[in-house]
Amino acid sequence: MKSACETSPFPFLDVVVIGGGPAGLVAATQAARAGARVLLVEKSGILGGATTLAGVASPGLFYARGRQIIAGIGWELATEALRMCGQPLPDFSDWKNLRHWELALRVNIPVYAALADRLVTRSGAALRLHTMLAAADYDERHAFWIIRLCQKDGLKTLRAGVLVDCTGDANAVALAGHRLRRNPELQPGTLSLHAGGYDPARLDYPALEAAFASAVAAGTLLRSDFYPATTPVTQFLRNRGANTMHVTGIDAATSEGKTGAELAARETLLRIILFLRAQPGLENFTVEHMSSECGIRETVTIDAEHRVSGHEYASGCAWEDSLCHSYFPIDLHNSAGGGVHTRPLEAGAVPTVPLRAQLPSGSRRLIVAGRIIGSDREANSALRVQATAMATGQVAGAAAALAATRNRDIRAIPLTEIRALLRAHGAIVPDTPAPPSGEATCRESP
Fold this sequence. Notes:
Elements: E1 12-18, H1 22-33, E2 38-41, E3 63-64, E4 67-68, H2 72-84, H3 109-122, E5 126-128, E6 132-139, E7 144-151, E8 154-165, H4 171-175, E9 180-182, E10 193-196, H5 205-218, H6 232-238, E11 241-242, H7 255-277, E12 286-290, E13 300-302, H8 310-314, E14 322-325, E15 330-333, E16 340-343, E17 352-354, E18 366-368, H9 377-383, H10 386-405, H11 415-424
Parallel strand pairs: 1-2, 1-8, 2-5, 8-18
Antiparallel strand pairs: 3-4, 6-7, 7-8, 9-13, 10-11, 10-12, 14-17, 15-16
Helix pairs in contact: 1-3, 1-10, 2-3, 2-10, 10-11
């Protein structure tokens, strides 16, 4: 029996994008600017994903060794947020003297969120907040998707020419019945926050580190609660919290798992507050702000037509179908907490992302963007960052718009046409694709 809010025939859209984070809001904007009829679906009440909901308000990296390698719609949004607040860009020419995270763009969350709303709606895309995907079935006979959405007022069914999964957890890919890849160990999450009520210059940090060790031994704190491997309490307090706590043992791919992650994050926060308020100089310690959600680094990736390996990423491989760049060191947070394994890329390497890494194996008219693209654990630890999500989102939006408006599968769209559309909308496309052999151009594995 159909709910009262369903209509027949079901409305038809060219492109439906699920997930309004860094990848999804760019994908929807690109598809709409290319002339497609687009709907963007977001589960929360705000666009931006990790930038806004998880409080990681530092989109990056757009530059590699002083050269811009990601631009387009994501760059447009992030730089407009800086401009509106009178904030300068980092000095990208000083990259040799700056740590990689210092080259990210530090945006104001409320301004960024409002500009994201404006970006999407002014593109012509329709937007549904507080809405989740309930079902996705591909109609082979008619070559379109039948999509069911769960809205506040009930279920809504519609049809779409192309489906774009930017959920961060491959929810659409999973509901469509395609295979996912899961690592046996997952990186911890982080609840970003801003702490106050103390003077960092007046604290006895060696005594605080000793108290932390005693609390861990007594079982009132977990060693993973503060994530730096050395001087964890010192770094937490000097950073006023920020993103220097770890939430371990979580799997946020499902609603049940994400609920567990949120509960674990806030329980971790309570342990930290109780511990710190008992220390000299921290009697008035308080958390002035925390992110709306626990930030998630890793859940699943798709079983893609190509799975980018850590070696391919770190050595800067290029493929015939490379349509965007990525740039970030290998950045694996310890699954048990207590540190981060960071490995720089090889000298001169600027990684690229092949279109096949965004296409689930055996799928039709389905493309993904963001951290769920086909990649092993090492490569994914770098590919997951916001600027790369934006770049892959723009690729997904361009490919989806061309496929939908021509009533063809994405694989049938010439790469030259996708490249031309991306460049027309300000994206930077890798200049030198590999020979048309499907093989990559990169250094040999050691």
